[in-house]
């Protein structure tokens, strides 16, 4: 009988067990913005700035049965989760930019008694990126709030979350590629050039005027959380080492006058790349609608 207990549960039971992940199963489609500083030795430069307006499809599939973890110093635990698959393309050229399969898990928080309160659980994201990177990030903040998100407020990391400025601070001439990228945004992408400094402006613009009645907030990090992190193939380590990931996801319920409410997913994500003795923020943002 023990093996039968790992069969798929009814949909409503699984939804409840997923906690703040409960609304994610399905397909989400939308647009966003991506900025990354890349090493450019091949062209004789220290770095170049790459910016893209993006289109994205993000799908989630429920893992129907319970996932058991066996304890040696603790009792066994069981939990549920989701498969996810992310595809990002350039909004102008339709060229592929990013593919990422992975898992989201909703586990009991380590060291805490089992709880049915979704805000007292531990969310885990595991992802694999074809450049040769893997991530294991844990939730650091979980919120369920009435009303719209306070974008870039819920985050608690010490560096301004939306900032693209490399650090330690480098001088202005060294940042000329950022000015060039701002001109690209204005002439080609119809995105506010100020997004070069704070890509989260793209998120704020996307929800301006919306009536958002509920927001579930998930903040995750690979930094400062035990046993989390990023692992990279040797080429990545040697040339542009991806050392940390922080992200905020907002699952929003949007009310419509004379229509049914709909679900919207926004996120901002920062990966730190290390090369040339500088930490370079790689920021991605998107606003997606559940189909």
Residue ranges: pLDDT <50 for 5 or more in a row?
Answer: 153-160
Report the sheet with the most strands, covering strand number, pairing sense and barrel closure: 10 strands, antiparallel, barrel
* Proportion of beta-strand residues: over 45%
- CATH top level label: Mainly Beta
Count of individual helical segments: 4
Radius of gyration, taken over Cα atoms and rounded to an integer in Å: 20 Å
The name CATH uses for the topology is Lipocalin
Structural class, from secondary structure content? mainly beta
Helical content class: 10-25%
Shape: globular
**Average of the residue pLDDT scores:** 87
Write the CATH architecture name. Beta Barrel
The topology string of helices and strands comes to HEEEEEEHHEEHEEE
Number of strands: 11
Distance between the termini: 38 Å
CATH-wise, what's the superfamily? Calycin beta-barrel core domain
Number of separate domains? 1
């Amino acid at each position: 009988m023990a093996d039968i207990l790992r069969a798929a549960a009814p949909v409503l039971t699984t939804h409840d067990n997923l906690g703040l992940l409960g609304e994610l199963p399905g397909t989400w489609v939308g647009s966003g913005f991506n900025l990354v500083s890349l090493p450019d030795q091949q062209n004789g430069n220290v770095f170049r700035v790459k910016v893209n307006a993006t289109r994205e499809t993000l799908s989630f599939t429920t893992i129907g049965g319970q996932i058991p973890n066996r304890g040696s110093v603790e009792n066994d635990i069981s939990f549920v989760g989701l498969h996810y698959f992310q595809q990002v393309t350039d909004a102008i050229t339709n060229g592929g930019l990013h593919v990422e399969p992975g898992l989201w898990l909703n586990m009991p928080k380590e060291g805490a008694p089992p709880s049915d309160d979704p805000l007292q659980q531990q969310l885990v994201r595991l992802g694999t990126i074809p450049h040769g990177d893997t991530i294991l990030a844990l939730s650091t903040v979980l919120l369920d709030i009435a009303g719209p998100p306070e974008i870039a407020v819920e985050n608690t990391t010490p560096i301004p979350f939306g900032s693209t400025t490399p650090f330690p601070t480098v001088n202005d001439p060294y940042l000329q590629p950022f000015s060039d990228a701002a001109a690209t945004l204005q002439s080609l992408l119809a995105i506010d050039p100020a997004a070069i400094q704070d890509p989260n402006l793209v998120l704020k613009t996307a929800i301006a005027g919306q009536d958002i009645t509920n927001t579930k907030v998930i903040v995750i990090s690979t930094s400062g959380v035990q046993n989390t992190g990023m692992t990279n193939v040797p080429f990545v380590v040697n040339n542009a080492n991806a050392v940390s990931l922080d992200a905020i996801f907002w699952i929003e319920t949007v009310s419509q006058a004379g229509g049914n409410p709909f679900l919207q997913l926004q996120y901002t994500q920062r990966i730190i790349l290390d090369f040339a003795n500088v930490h370079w923020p790689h920021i991605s943002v998107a606003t997606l609608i559940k189909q």
